[in-house]
Amino acid sequence: MSQMDNKKNKNKLNPVMTLVILIGLTIILSGILSLFGLEATYNEVNEVTNTYDKVWVSVESLFNLSGIKYIFESTVSNFAAFTPLSMLLITLIGIGIMEKSGFLKTLFNILTRKAQKRTITFIMVLVCILFSIAGDIGYVVMIPLSALIFYHGRRNPLIGIITSFSALTCGTGLSLFLTSVDSSLLNKTLGAAHILDVNYSSSTWGFVIIMFVSILILAGVITAVTEKITAFNVSKYEFKDDKKELRLTKREIRGLLFSLVMGGLYLLIFIYNIIPGLPFSGNLLDYSQNLYIDKLFSSSSFFSQGFVFIITMLFIILGLFYGIGSKSIKNNNDFCSFLTHSLDGIGRTILLILLSSILINIFKKTNIGVVVCAMVSNLIENSTFTGLPLLILFFIGCAISTIFLPNSLNKWTILAGSCVPKLMSNGLSPEFCQVIFRFAEGVFYGLTPIMAYYIIYLAYIEKYNQDDEPITLLSSIKYQCVYSIATFAVLLLVLILWYVIGLPLGIGAMATI
Question: Staple 126 to which of 41, 112, 219, 256, CB 3.0 to 4.6 Å?
Fold first, then answer.
């Protein structure tokens, strides 16, 4: 590499400096927008009276003494409560012992040695999409594991990281079963529908058909993009160890047997405790809720609050008993050392997460995202479009809103009050409105650094990057652009075909009314 190339690479903005600059720009932008009085109103549904409450929002400036004081006062507490940090640290403990004990290497070698690359990619993408039922834990579980799946399959782990993140983000609104997020969104949807029809109701299985079809289509599209485009665009990866034919020893077979049996027993006990109605079962459910999905995933349920640790304990059991069976763990010192394996050298990751937490916190405080989303809501409500053009406008509006306001419930609270009655008046069902919203969310969800888990993706790309050219925030976004374009085209086409043909969305729900 020439001296000029080295100089160019050194001059490229490091992600740490990029985040610092974004923080500074957000503070300055909030001051400018506040000075110009940027504001908006939106209709929030009062579910008690079935009427609108007009909500006024404006950009709050942080480019002043009180704003600077807020940043300094809130940074430590906000970082300590920043969910991606705690989730990542806890999950890495379990992944560390699985990796260091040899469990992951043996398992992934068995799974990948005779399977086609495309098949492995498709299965991984499908699992990532289906992980949406468990919420955001998919980001801290599947991104590290996908890197290891590709690594032990003798493929570039960067491909696994980029692909898993695209599947998690693009598929964020797709789920066969009604998740806790979907349940909360449905309450908002029905509240907005009651503005026009107070007796309107919906089925919890009202989305299953379109979701099933869309999940398979999206998994195929993401797989195709990975194999045809991403695999050729990432930097080369050199493996430190020589490629060897896997031959399982008796110790490794015994280790796998131990780990799978004990892991299976752990899962059986856990599953039994989330099934209601059996003797001594259902102990992990929140019985203050009515719907099963809310009993499982409500904010106060054991499952919701403890799921990260549940997964981590499974990983520890698998790694520990593999190590005992294979003799890779000989004593308690080995066990303790293996637990911390994945935590070695994550100082830079923690720094990135700190800066990300500051950026997200101050951006939320400025209300810029809320104002933009409210403006989009008003644009859709006041448009003269009908039918298919209105569907497309709504899809694009929801996608754009996600860049500035990634949180689903906050965004739908703003959009539903105006958009659901607007689309209902043009013949689209409330359920279809929610499906359009959920599909559109995934389109640009992976392109916004104010999405909390974007920083996990960026940190892992940096970790596995071997190229002399450093990873930048912009380059990490570029990797996701092709997936966003493909997702935009495919999911919008699915929605259009569903609307034109008049197919059922699920049980008891149609695209039109």
Answer: 219
